[in-house]
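User: Hi! I have a protein structure encoded as tokens and I'd like to know what sequence might fold into it. I'm fairly new to this, so please keep things simple.
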């Protein structure tokens, strides 16, 4: 038996939890019948060879039976809601046709994927207009990890994700394959996308009715696009690839009986050591892969995963074969390169709440590049949250194009599960988180708060990863072009577009 310490707290500053927000909408336990947890199918490659993988990813409209009665109009990738799960293998050349079958412009952003920007990365500079398709090609070169694909057409990211445009992406590599982790997809290895929604008349979503500049919320937990799900457990251990896919909500996860679970991976892949918990908090866009051992239960038992005191998923225990697999105390080595001498410390100051959010005193401007870093350098980035310690909120800070190392939180060690690679970090009010950041792909990329209404509202900046020997210029999108497209596609005047962030950014 392992003698690892078991952590029982959420680490983040309690006064900053979203539960203290004026606009907080508590989750409510759904009253509808329990439904089998949707497990998104794996997206079939169009073709796969020893060296290459070909995919077609289609953004489409659809209808999903979420509640009894009327179906809900939703959007998804190769699916009516969310999407199929996309698998990339480290070392392969990936070719993806991106097809937009939606009635409006979108982009395909690969959150956490190490690809060039701004086009392959898929932020706001890479629009795909309705009825059109485009192709991206890149070499998958990164550690096994749980990443995700989501729409990113600033400042309408939040609306499109709310409609369903988000799906899990799994990177596989040889190192992770050697580890004693469950990996039978859909049986003992499953994505768990945590979201919340409010359903209006005829079971429909209504983004504008629920809009909140600090982040839209709904009282109903929606897990993998399932309301009130259960999962049939047929193995002693299961691995959950949990993603906080909510626009704003934090999840404070724990199981019934305070069942212990083990985190084995964070955003960028496997942790150096497994970390045991009874409680785990995730902020927006963060991922945690956890392994849960149901060895103490017997067929007929039920184990519930909660956030705060609301049930999210019920795990129904069935017959399983005994599995005494123990995780080694050391899993993988994490790179920790030396900082390049004589390089500046980048400063990112996240300030404000509601419409007043900004980074370094500015609102996002698609045409402005706020910072730069030389490709191959390793540099410190200090990320501060100047919100008031007692009334402010946690801003989950995300950077495209990198998996960084968290060096410290206000000079202290990062949390016990933050010793691996990350692309998103929750920053407490009054805190400065120091990151060690390096890039190996050129491009213009975004860094922002991942509360989607904050990023749409301008709490976002851009940086360029450059090579001094090969300077490049980029054609950057502008707000007017995007808003003109949205207005035309939605058949309204630009002034009448219900895209709240357009009035807050440039
Ligand atoms: Cu999930 Cu700009 O990203
Ligand atoms: Cu991203
Ligand atoms: Cu924020």
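Assistant: Happy to help. Inverse folding works backwards from shape to sequence: for each of the 506 positions I chose a residue that suits the local structure. Here it is:
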């Amino acid at each position: 038996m392992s003698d690892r310490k078991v952590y029982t707290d959420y680490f983040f500053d309690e006064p900053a939890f979203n539960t203290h927000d004026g606009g907080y909408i508590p989750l409510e336990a759904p009253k509808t019948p329990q439904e089998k947890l949707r497990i998104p199918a794996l997206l079939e490659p169009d073709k796969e060879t020893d060296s290459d993988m070909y995919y077609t990813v289609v953004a489409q409209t659809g209808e999903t039976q979420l509640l009894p009665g009327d179906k809900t109009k939703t959007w998804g990738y190769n699916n009516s809601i969310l999407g199929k799960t996309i698998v990339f293998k480290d070392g392969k050349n990936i070719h993806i046709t991106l097809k937009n079958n939606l009635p409006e412009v979108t982009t395909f952003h690969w959150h956490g994927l190490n690809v060039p920007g701004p086009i392959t990365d898929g932020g706001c500079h890479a629009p795909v207009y309705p009825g059109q398709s485009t192709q991206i090609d890149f070499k998958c070169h990164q550690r096994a990890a749980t990443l995700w694909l989501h729409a990113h057409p600033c400042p309408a990211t939040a609306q499109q994700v709310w409609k369903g445009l988000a799906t899990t992406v799994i990177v596989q590599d040889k190192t992770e394959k050697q580890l004693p982790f469950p990996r039978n997809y859909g049986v003992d290895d499953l994505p768990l996308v945590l979201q919340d929604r409010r359903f209006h008349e005829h079971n429909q979503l209504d983004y504008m009715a629920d809009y909140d500049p600090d982040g839209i919320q709904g009282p109903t937990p929606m897990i993998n696009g399932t309301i009130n799900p259960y999962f049939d457990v047929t193995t002693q251990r299961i691995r959950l690839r949990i993603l906080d896919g909510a626009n704003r909500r934090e999840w404070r996860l724990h199981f019934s009986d305070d069942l212990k679970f083990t985190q084995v991976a964070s955003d960028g892949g496997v942790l150096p050591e497994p970390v045991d918990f009874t409680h785990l908090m995730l902020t927006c866009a963060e991922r945690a892969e956890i392994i849960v051992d149901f060895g103490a239960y017997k067929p007929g038992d039920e184990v519930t995963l909660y956030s705060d005191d609301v049930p999210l998923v019920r795990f129904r225990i069935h017959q399983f074969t005994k599995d005494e697999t123990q995780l080694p105390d050391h899993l993988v080595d994490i790179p920790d390169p030396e900082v390049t001498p004589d390089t500046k410390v980048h400063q990112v100051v996240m300030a404000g709440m509601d419409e007043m959010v900004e980074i370094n005193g500015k609102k996002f401007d698609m045409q402005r590049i706020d910072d730069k870093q030389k490709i191959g350098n390793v540099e410190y980035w200090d990320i501060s949250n100047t919100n008031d310690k007692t009334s402010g909120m946690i801003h989950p800070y995300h950077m495209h194009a990198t998996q960084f190392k968290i060096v410290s939180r206000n000079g202290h060690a990062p949390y016990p599960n933050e010793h691996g690679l990350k692309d998103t970090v929750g920053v407490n009010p009054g805190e400065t988180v120091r990151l060690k950041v390096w890039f190996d792909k050129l491009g213009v990329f975004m860094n922002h708060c991942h509360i989607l209404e904050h990023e749409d509202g301008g709490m976002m900046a851009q940086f360029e990863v450059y090579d001094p020997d090969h300077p490049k210029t980029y054609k950057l999108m502008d707000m007017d072009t995007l808003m003109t497209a949205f207005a035309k596609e939605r058949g309204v005047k630009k002034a009448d577009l219900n895209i709240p962030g357009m009035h807050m950014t440039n």
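A useful reference point when you look it over: Residues 6-13+181-317 form a domain with the Immunoglobulin-like fold (CATH 2.60.40.420). Feel free to ask if any position seems puzzling.
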